[in-house]
Amino acid sequence: MITAQELVIFSLKSKIKIASAISSRWGAAIAFNIFCTPFRKPRNVPPPIFDECEEFKIIVNGFKIHGYCWNPRSAKRALILHGFESRAYNFDRYITPLLNKGYAVFAMDGKAHGKSEGKRTNAPEYAEMIRVLEEKTGKFDTYISHSFGGIALCLFQEINNNPHAKMILIAPATETKSAISLFSSFFGLGDHIKEAIHRHILEKSGKATSFYSINRIAPLLKNPILWIHDTEDDITPLSDVKPLMERSLANIEFMVTSGLGHRKIYKDPMVMQRIFDFI
Question: What is the pLDDT of residue 6?
Answer without folding.
Answer: 61
